[in-house]
Request: fold
Amino acid sequence: MDLILRILLFCNLLFLIGCSSTRTSLPGHIEPHHHLRFQNGYVRVMETRLEPGQETHEHSHPLEAAVIFLTDGQFRIRHDDGTTEESTCTRGTVGFGAAPTVHRTKNIGQEIARVLVVEIFSQPPASGNESANHSTGELLLENDRVQVSSERLSKDAAVTLSGVTPSVVVAMNQGRLLAGTKVETLNLGNSVWCDTNIKNLRNAGRNALDLIIVTPMPRLNR
Reply:
């Protein structure tokens, strides 16, 4: 009888420990609604796609990131501290995601919502130029972690990259892009990694091509 009682007490103790332990969340890159596009030593690119009414599981983002809204969307975000916020974003909007963060996101709109997240693993060393300065397009976002700009290329038009740091080039519509010596066929949300050997981007399609260029900022020695 004493043995049975001790076993029961031990099981109750394990149950209480389990109930009092810190709640864990899924890492963002394995959360089912986050689709990994590619990853290297600099960045991890994921696309979140939510049907109307769908909600992600609670998940964590341990890395700072550039966030690109590929479609219009309405969202309800539930943070792990219990607070809730709602936001409406338009296609082409760019934001910066601080880290670490834990939350779950619900699509409260009427259409499929698509969001691209470019997490920054590391920054390349500075090489005498403190700014990425990758294109002459519109600067959408810049801080000490990342620079994001937009570029609209008409047929046969090209843009020269500075080559200071590598970049992720995101397509905002369908088209064909000559990146260096390789032609990429692109759809909305497709991403192309351009290392420092790729100096030029050229529209190889028939229609105007809208791009968003995400560049990790050079790391400065302080």
Q: What stands out?
A: The longest helix spans residues 2-20. The chain has a mean pLDDT of 86.
